[in-house]
Amino acid sequence: xxxxxxxxxxxxxxxAKRAVVHDVSLELPKGPTGVALVGESGSxxxxxxxxxxxxxxxxxxxxxxxxxxxxxFSRSERAEYRRTVQPVFQDGTEALDPRxxxxxxxxxxxxxxxxxxxxxxxxxxxxxxxxxxxxxxxGIVDRLPHQIxxxxxxxxxxxxxxxxxxxxxxxxxxxxxxxVTVQAKILDLLxxxxxxxxxxxxxITHNLAIVESLCSYTxxxxxxxxxxxxxxxxxxxxxxxxxxxSLIAALPRMGGQIPTAVGRADVGFAESGCSFxxxxxxxxxACLASPExxxxxxxxxxxxxxxxxxxxxxxxxxxxxxx
Amino acid sequence: xxxxxxxxxxxxxxxxxxVVVLTFVIVRLLPGDPAAAxxxxxxxxxxxxxxxxxxxxxxxxxxxxxxYMSGLVRGDWGTSLHTRLPVAHDxxxxxxxxxxxxxxxxxxxxxxxxxxxxxxxxxxxxPVDGGIRLGSMFVAAFPVFLLALIVQNLFATKLGWFxxxxxxxxxxxxxxxxxxxxxxxxxxxxxxxxxxIFLSTVHHLILPALVVAAYPIGVVTxxxxxxxxxxxxxxxxxxxxALGFTPGQVLRRFSFRPSLNPILTLLALIFAYSxxxxxxxxxxxxxxxxxxxxxxxxxxxxxxxVAGVTLIVALAYVLANLIVDIAQTFIDPRVxxx
Amino acid sequence: MTVDGVTVTSxxxxxxxxxxxxxxxxxxxxxxxxVYEGECVALVGESGSxxxxxxxxxLGLGDFSGATVTGxxxxxGVNVVDAPQAQLRRVHGTAITLVSQSPQAALNPTMRLGxxxxxxxxxxxxxxxxxxxxxxxxxxRVVLPDEILKRYPHEVSGGQAQRFCIALAVALQxxxxxxxxxxxxxxVTVQAEILRLLxxxxxxxxxxxxxxxHDLALVSTLADRIVVMKDGAVVEVGxxxxxxxxxxxxxxxxxxxxxxxxxVTS
Lengths: 323, 338, 266
Known about the structure:
The complex is a heterotrimer. By secondary structure, chain A is α/β, with parallel strands linked by helices. Chain A has eleven helices and twelve strands. Chain A has two domains: 4-220, P-loop containing nucleotide triphosphate hydrolases (Rossmann fold); 239-317, no CATH class. In chain A, a hairpin with a 2-residue loop joins strand 1 (4-15) and strand 2 (18-29). In chain A, helix 4 packs parallel to helix 6 and helix 5 crosses helix 6 (150-163). Chain A is globular and about 70 Å long. By secondary structure, chain B is mainly α. Chain B has helices at residues 2-29, 34-39, 45-55, 61-74, 87-122, 127-141, 144-158, 172-175, 185-191, 195-231, 235-242, 247-284, 290-299, 303-331. By secondary structure, chain C is α/β, with parallel strands linked by helices. Chains in contact: A-C, B-C.
């Protein structure tokens, strides 16, 4: 329990009395490791991440930083926590100040880091160390964000996050704005950094294929709830929740058939009972009640038919859809 | 929609209160002593004290503000020093005349500026576009008083196509007297079917209204051009082309409506600006509007009248903005959400 | 057309030496490409490869972004590269139309979907009862309720907006859909729905498709032929199997290797 760096404990977030995130519990252990939050847009994964980052306060439940409740922090504790948990966003163009050179951006980050006392040559060597860490040439310090490529910008963002010596990186769709060849290189870099700096990653993505290389643990969210969570290989390779199965079935595979569309995404979600039942191809009458997030083997699943899915994604192709 | 309206009205009310306070403060900062002006040049110290009492100048500032505000609400906008009449009464005559002039000018701006802007957007980057852009910059930048003098000299004095000055031929007051409802001559003449005065007013209106319209025509042309060509470069215009609509159709049927919102916002701004910009034109064409009244009021340190003019211009501006905001919700369905 | 007793279908789209330039900069060059009825040809590449510029030029909309297009693109006997507006009406919305990347932005924000559908059909001489029937049939085909016609674009989901754009193509009975990253703004589950729909239309109506995408895995499920582009040039053209299994260019191999695959940690 105490080994966790950061923990969401039954976090619920409501806007205008509607819960957009419902009773989410998630543990981020000490690195090197990674936890992925996957799900479609509007599933609440970004909201959960923002709560973990302390950017929003849960309506109920707690976010724990080690032994401390994040909402009870003093000003200095909050600053320390903000430093420990660093975000890296999708688009380096928006995350970087367009008028600030790469060197300036890094120097600014250093000024709030434990290395803030460094001056002159020591500071310059720390900057070049950071650039080196993310595979950038020292000559880039004088460039502005628009003068470098998308992949380089994302590397600068990562270097800037590393500058404050964080323990957790929140990676919010870190490669989805990048070309695939660049994406592959950024993933390699992130994997290396994860081990070299013992980092914990919280990865938010819709791209299931990149999850495995960075995260050993995965939580699948649907309509504000975690419907399945567990070790990545188990969850993504032998799903137990029909929603996870449908996500996997929808992935286009190289040279494969047209991916399978399960149900219709625009039917929305049920307000009561299992929120996925309207889209679920194997829903039964029991699904009118709310399933608990129950432990099955090494994972947690909220589905009455989890044992029927039992790692067989093709079950979502079955025709037994109840109207 | 309902909530949007309520919020918008509340905002407008807040702005009005702010303007009232501001006019009160500004008027107090004006040089000169209104009591001295009220009491006359040969007033004794006793006369001055009495004037101070009558004008409420001996009371604390906040009390004076309270008196001022409650008076405004009751329709008591104070008494003008130079006309010796209630300011509200003076404004009820001068403001409609200005509204008539500026309203007509804005009609010209819309009727000329929007088609010009559309034409420029359609032939974006071509000589047609270049010509329109140059022309619109020229009319917008031309000093209004100079334009007024040139136009008056050429079309009225030299060519005699239009009357030189005035709102309508005053001889008509005897032959076909005008019944007043709105105090806007052209409207009253129209609704009462008083054709001689209507035609005479329109004839008198054209030159000064065109002069006032010069700047609005220029900026409306430029804004229409910019907004429509921007809209025509968006994703939806590409789909519309791919569906088989010609570039001209895309412009008129698809890009114009989403571009109307910035144009309307601009019109509201121009309206308030033109009310004041028209002061000089009114003076040159001897138009019985706010301009003449404002100049007289300032010259005679007529604080109540100056405050009244400031306030009515501000009110007109707030109202114009409110109307535009409401109109926008009908034009663009996305506005209803925010 | 019959040559020596053998039926030869002429291509629906025939591209020859098409060059797209901005000023002096060549952004896209397609030496030769034919698209036949019922065929899906995909243009694949990374950003800056010129694939979208090529698609727009093929559509005859090169002028839209201020590009200069040279060469020939024959659609229905019309060279869209330099055809006058009157001739383009025989191409746009008749032979070919567009399905865009961000479906909601592709629909006019101030127009109800129903009005756009009606105006589009009217533009091609279909009015009144026939227009209504065609719209209703097209909506049924893409599985959207009629009620959607009363909505504005911001009132529908991305998936619904994309279905509606496809319904426009169905109602107009175009022979070819030009799809510019049609699913990259959508969730993976919605993406699967749209891909299915496009594939079904192709089989049912013999519709051709020119598909632009950065996603090689996606393309490989739908395309008959794949054109790989890089820095404005075509680096490889071949059938799907040729490109996937025996790529000739190093770049194609690099691209194939970079695609992450679920269950294979590199």
